[in-house]
Amino acid sequence: MNDLNQMYYKKMESIHEKHFAWLKYRESHLKKLLNQVESHQFKNKSSLQQELDAITSKLEIIKNPETHLVVKDLKMYFGGVKAVNDLSFEVKKGEIFGLIGPNGAGKTTVFNCITQFYRSTGGYMYFRNKENQITNLADRKVHEMIQEGIARSFQNVELIWELTVLDNLLVAGHSLLLSDYLEHMLHSKRMLQEESVLRTKGYELLKKLGIEDYAFRSPYGLPYGVLKKIELARTLMTDPTLIILDEPAAGLNDQETKDLAKTIKEINQSLGITIFLVEHDMGLVMSICDRICAISFGKKLALGIPSYIQNHPDVKKAYLGEDIDE
Ligand SMILES: Nc1ncnc2c1ncn2[C@@H]1O[C@H](COP(=O)(O)OP(=O)(O)OP(=O)(O)O)[C@@H](O)[C@H]1O
After folding, report:
1. ipTM of this model?
2. What is the predicted pLDDT for the residue at 326?
3. Which SMART domains is this protein grouped with (predicted)?
4. N or C end of the chain: which has fewer CB within 10 A?
């Protein structure tokens, strides 16, 4: 074989090698593509739709920095009872947002789904957390809500009667402490420093709400209006960005309700905290809420400013019991 032939064969060899490598690459690429196509064929339309809905809801909150919470197509079924059925709304940063509806409409269930006391049957809840990150609440656990920036109160006053009012606040603040269990056992310097900061913070909050005189006594026997304020102060201990209040005015007289309304408004305005509340007292709801969502049988009836909701025929019919045909 002369030199020319040798050169020719070498060149052909390298061309073949390159072609082989290209074929191998193409083969593996096509295998991957086929796998993807197959898995998509097996995915039914609804799961693709669900994926799309989740992305759309997330994009909605990412695109709009004013949005604090997005609830989309929320469902909560208890066997045959559809307590919440495809409910969608969004809560804006810094607003007071009310959720109203007749007894059994699903209001508390919505709160329980958002705060993960209940695992929803379906739908999405995206929240702009303390770090301004978008978090899917359904992926979080109930005890992680505080770290995300959500604090809540319950329909019934849930205080520890054996502790002083201030210590009740400290219990809430403890979830944010850096010192660990051992440091608490040994009363380490860091733990004592942190506790002292918490005590001052708790006392300042009681002062802000005008109930510092009760700081060092048991909450047992205090007027209901004061107990509700202690609960409110306790939610503030965790530095929340969103406070969820379940019927804050339940059991209060007219004067106490007015006083509480003023306090909620003050917290909202001076601390810039978003408030999301469920309430039956229409006077309170209409006077302090920026926007209201009315629901009945777990479904949205109307959403808008108080005057719009007050005059909405479906709301009047379902919630106020007025027949619009009359
Ligand atoms: N844990 C549960 N198990 C079964 N059914 C439930 C549960 N929680 C709520 N429900 C039902 O879901 C529906 C909505 O209840 P929910 O307490 O959310 O209503 P609500 O609007 O908060 O009522 P209210 O104003 O009386 O507090 C009701 O029919 C209720 O019986």
Report:
1. 0.95
2. 43
3. AAA (SM00382)
4. C
